[in-house]
Amino acid sequence: MPRRSYDQYCAVARALDAVGDRWTLLIARELLGGPRRYTDLHADLPGVSTDMLASRLKDMERDDLLTRRRLPRPGTASVYELTARGRALLPVLAALADWGAPALDEQRPTDAVRAHWFAVPLLARLARYFADAPVRVIDIALDEGAFHIVLDPDDPTAGHYADGPAPHPDTALRMTAATCAALAHDRFSLAEALAAGWIDQSHPDDHTAAPATA
User: Strands 171-174 and 137-142: what pairing?
Assistant: First the structure.
């Protein structure tokens, strides 16, 4: 199917030609966490049909936003991963997350949630908080799951994240999804949340932190 276009000589229109279709930016959000198999993407994009996901992946590959590669033997699966052009969407998604955060009020009964969906808005806030500390790898634990963030000391917008705990984190934070949403909306700072006990911080040699309750 030929690419649909707004046919406008405008940078915003050209960008939307590539990423304006439904699900495209959410696929990019998933792949910013690293290469993913088709089944992983489908599992973490609740509501997308298999036909729609396959179509969007083909479109994104055509537009040089992602590539597909086969895993080494003995595996037979393929994974999708972002190109440099696709990874450049991180600040775009961060801006959208900041813009959309005020809509994260009470979680609706129909709302799906994955822990790593909070990674994009947390990146800049963690970078600010740890700017003067020797902390680069941060484990984040929620009741819904765990992920880790790797900060870039030279560019707070260039960090990355991945599912699951890191092999050697510098520090670990445990909080609730509600606390993550409030941080994304800047209802309070990370420093304030730590001081209030809404976030528990521990270090690799500290296994005594209690779960967060806020």
Answer: parallel
pTM of the full structure: 0.89
> Which region, left, alpha or beta, applies to residue 117 given φ > 0 means left and ψ of -120 to 50 means alpha?
alpha
Residues 6+ apart with CB under 8 A from 99: none
Find the length of the chain: 214
Q: What DSSP designation does 186 have? A: T
Q: Helices in the chain by DSSP H: which ranges? A: 11-19, 24-31, 38-43, 50-62, 84-87, 90-100, 119-129, 177-184, 190-196
Burial class (CB in 10 A: 0-12, 13-18, 19+), 162: middle
Number of other CB atoms surrounding residue 54 within 10 Å: 13
Max Cα separation, the chain? 59
Q: How many CA atoms lie within 13 A of 94 on its CB side?
A: 19
Rg of the Cα atoms in the chain: 18
Give pLDDT tens digits for 27-67.
999 999 999 999 999 999 999 999 999 999 999 999 999 99
Scanning 50-163, the segments in alpha helix (DSSP H) are 50-62, 84-87, 90-100, 119-129
